[in-house]
Write a structure and sequence with these properties.
This protein has 157 residues and is of the alpha/beta class. Helices cover 42% and strands 21% of the residues. It has a five-stranded parallel beta sheet with strand order 2-1-4-3-5. It is an enzyme of class 2 (transferase).
Length: 157
């Protein structure tokens, strides 16, 4: 299995990008991982929230292959502990899927089409974080999940 993370818009904070790169590299020791940025929409100011969600949704869906399992990072999603998340990853690996895709939406969330295509929703917290921070948090949690599965000490630090 491989894991892909899709996010809208690039990270312009150099320190944050450096942390993302670090965890991405660490994660690569456990699983094939790809982090793909979907560029911000041009002229988004001229679009309604609904139009923006629709256009972003079309871009997200265009990045998927038919057999991908799509999981949305969504404030109304299921919350898991880090151990629960590692078990969630293991269950997906055991199911024999080729690619698990996590998506961080744009500022207004996801279009109906994206919700309809998704096989699950996860929430990292009841708190709201910037879309930039969520990237770091999900990559760190993926890394943590694999260290838990391998019984490595990172989880308790």
């Amino acid at each position: 299995m491989q894991i892909k993370l899709l996010a809208i818009g690039k990270t312009d904070n150099k320190q944050l990008q450096s942390l993302i790169d670090d965890y991405q590299k660490r994660l690569g020791f456990y699983i094939k991982f790809e982090f793909e940025i979907i560029p911000d929409l041009k002229k988004a100011k001229n679009l309604s929230e609904e139009q923006q969600k629709q256009k972003e949704g079309d871009l997200i869906l265009s990045k998927l292959q038919t057999q991908d399992v799509l999981i949305l990072l969504d404030e109304n999603g299921k919350q898991l502990s880090s151990v629960g998340f590692s078990e969630y990853l293991q269950k997906h690996m055991n199911s024999g899927i080729k690619q698990l895709v996590f998506v961080i939406g744009g500022p207004y969330g996801f279009s109906k089409d994206v919700y309809n295509k998704a096989q699950g929703k996860l929430s990292l917290s009841k708190m709201t974080f910037s879309h930039q921070m969520i990237r770091l948090f999900i990559i760190e949690q993926l890394y943590r999940g694999f260290t838990i599965l391998k019984n490595e000490p990172y989880h308790h630090h």
